[in-house]
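Hi C.,

You asked whether I'd gotten around to modeling the 242-residue construct. I have! Everything is below, sequence then structure, no commentary in between.
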Amino acid sequence: MITLASIPTRPPEDLDRDKCEKQTKKWVKRIGELQEMLNAQGKHSVLVLFQGMDASGKDGAIRKIFEDCHPKGLQVISFKKPTEEEFAHDFLWRIHKHAPAKGMIHIFNRSHYEDVLIQRVHQWIDETHVDKRIAAINAFEELLEFDANTLVLKFFLHISYEQQAIELQERLDEPDKHYKHNPGDWEERKHWDEYMRCYEDVLNRSSIPWTIVPVDKRWYRDYIVAQTLVEKMEALHLQYPG
């Protein structure tokens, strides 16, 4: 049973930052090599999901971890509020069309889980809807793995309440970060406890497990995400055709 309050948001005290950052660079380079083989072989695809509270570092993780990947085999999709057309369909309609083709890595910056998080927190859907949607999400992800040879990797970026305040304030105080400022982020912060409850429920009810990534120190975030990607992609036994 996952309880977020019991999981640290910071790295272990005895971890050497310099060594971790050097290792992260090696893993990032390896991810680029693996992506090239994935694209050339065309037998598998990879779907990477990043979820987390505002200012948990989703954009930074994507920028850092995939910097050695070739753009032709990579696509980043950011999911915002659904459009009128998307609202006219089932909640997974807009998601499914962005599932990666074989040979591709697709990265979801936020994802279909928004539909059982923000909508649940604000009580825009009832608990029956929540149960049905979680079941549909599990079936969707299992379909991708079973029917399309898609490796589904899900990262929950675990930030502390205190660190989130620091990150949000920096968006106000630092000119090069001001473009990220959104007053709505401070409003959503008021619902922190309810978000944690809903996230815990999602983490515990997902059939494909999540990697919970402590992100109060960004270098440790990158270390964990890169390590996980390398381990999971190498398990695909990718190789060049011929």
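If it helps when you're writing up: Residues 17-234 form a domain with the Rossmann fold fold (CATH 3.40.50.300).

Thanks,
B.
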